Amino acid sequence: MARTVTQKRKIINTAAAWSVGLLIFFPILWTILTSFKTEAQAIADPPLFLGFDWTLENYAAVMERSNYGRFLWNSIVIAGGSTILGIIIAVPAAWSMAFVPSKRTKDILLWMLSTKMLPAVGVLYPIYLLFIRLGILDTKIGLVIVLMLINLPIIVWMLYTYFKEIPGEILEAARMDGATLKEEVLYVLTPMAIPGIASTLLLNVILAWNEAFWTLNLTAAKAAPLTAFIASYSSPEGLFYAKLSAASTMAIAPILILGWFSQKQLVSGLTFGAVK
Amino acid sequence: MATQHSRSAARLMMAPAVVLLLGWMLVPLTMTLYFSFKKYLPLRGGDLGWVGFDNYVRFVTSSAFWPSVLTTLTIVGGVLAITVILGILLAVLLNQPMWGQGVVRILVIAPFFVMPTVSALVWKNMFMDPNYGLLAYLWEFFGAEPVQWLSQASLTSIIMIVSWQWLPFATLILLTAIQSLDSEQLEAAEMDGAPSTKRFAFITLPHLGRAITVVILIQTIFLLSIFAEIFVTTGGAFGTKTLTYLIFQRVLESQNVGLGSAGGVYAIILANIVAIFLMRIVGKNLDA
């Protein structure tokens, strides 16, 4: 008796959850579907769901017309570069805060977090001006630096949270056995820290890939990543739905897949460990 | 215990991150403060001298200021209400026993990973376009007149787009919190005959309190500065000019840096008020 009730409830739950899930996912699904239609089919009345001739012509057209490859390359360099640079700077800092904490560690961590809350628009012109003076406006290196700086607090925090979970006794044992600081970091800590570093890397690549304030305001033709490439479709060009869809799909596909792998890290990373 | 040697090594290891962030914070902030007290028009004469608090007064008294604050608050409030309420319901639903929970989670979380410019454009053209958008078909199908979403219901449209982007985040955080709830407590309440609505109101909801606060604060920080969604949809027209967008227009479009910088200082103050509350909560968690 009790079993059939649970079974029935499970069926209802499943149906409800799947309906809601599909509804939320629908805009993405619709974009992907539309990208394989012809322009005429994309605006057909009534809308076509699956019964259309699948074509790859939009992808070819987008690749050919707007030099998609260069935008993609800029996105990869900017997101990857800023994340790797950030991790190189953050690992020693997080390591020392986790294993050699002092009275001020907590204050430093909170202060770092507070820099993340500075609204970008408040410092838009100074950064813009500095970029012109330094000759790095519309360059990849300029964006690597800015995105590294805006994500550095999150990187430090995430690494700190992971490092703190590594038991200190292991390090003490290594120290007792005469390991130097270098050996300690290289042979004891690094292997244990790699999963945490990997998650941090993943989440920050996603954040940097999707960042759409600095990437739109500090680039023009040369260093513009995919966020700017898509924004250029806000002109009447956007009325070519199939091509817009193909371009959108190409811009989000890599990061959507990365994101699905890192959904757990998202919680700890973006809430700074406040929700577990 | 840590030796003196390892302490100084630790300080050295922290130095690059601390120095960089300090520079990132202080240099632009000082420049913004400096410009905010100047009449500074890069394309029309450049630095035209000190003007005291003129820019601050002018920014607040301009006819665009209060509407922009109201727009900002409407968007933030609307998105928060939608994402928190739907997020709680979704989290409770996703926490029930079902088949394919992992797949549903993946479907629900997906919008968060879509870059803002893409989601804004897809919604603007493929869903909200009054002629070819999918919502227009839907309205016509039910015999209704299609809505001119981004011109007639512009704020509602922006709130819809942004809510779609942030609902996954709220759901994921709240789901994580629900999963940490002690199921024995719920079972005990069920045995004592508490109906599911009461179990939700007196056990689940209070347990979620902290997670809800975190969701509200983190989203507020991000929502106060949404930019791309407005940039590619309405460009600030039809009453969608937020404080962020107003400052952006003053600084980059009309190149009035002094006035924009004063606005920037207001935005920083606004964000800091929110930030203080968030830091309290996160700080408490560090001790625990």
Describe this structure in words.
Chain A is mainly alpha-helical. Chain A folds into 2 domains: 2-58, no CATH class; 67-270, Orthogonal Bundle (MetI-like fold). Helix content of chain A is 74%, strand content 0%. Chain A contains 13 helices and no strands. In chain A, helix 1 packs across helix 12, helix 4 packs across helix 9 (181-210) and helix 5 runs antiparallel to helix 7 (140-164). Chain A is globular and about 75 Å long. The mean pLDDT of chain A is 84. Chain B is globular. In chain B, a hairpin with a 4-residue loop joins strand 1 and strand 2. The mean pLDDT of chain B is 85. Chain B has 288 residues and is mostly helical. Chain B has helices spanning 4-36, 54-61, 65-94, 101-109, 116-127, 134-141, 149-152, 154-179, 183-191, 196-224, 228-233, 243-253, 257-287, and strands at 38-41, 46-50. Chain B is 75% helix and 3% strand. At the A-B interface, helix 1, helix 4, helix 5, helix 6 and helix 7 of A face helix 1, helix 3, helix 4, helix 5 and helix 6 of B.
Produce the secondary structure layout.
The complex is a heterodimer of chains A (276) and B (288).
Chain A: H1 2-34, H2 39-42, H3 57-66, H4 68-99, H5 105-116, H6 124-134, H7 140-164, H8 168-176, H9 181-210, H10 214-217, H11 226-231, H12 241-261, H13 263-270
Helix pairs in contact in A: 1-12, 3-12, 4-7, 4-9, 5-7, 7-9, 8-9, 9-12
Chain B: H1 4-36, E1 38-41, E2 46-50, H2 54-61, H3 65-94, H4 101-109, H5 116-127, H6 134-141, H7 149-152, H8 154-179, H9 183-191, H10 196-224, H11 228-233, H12 243-253, H13 257-287
Antiparallel strand pairs in B: 1-2
Helix pairs in contact in B: 1-13, 2-13, 3-8, 3-10, 3-12, 5-8, 8-10, 9-10, 10-13, 12-13
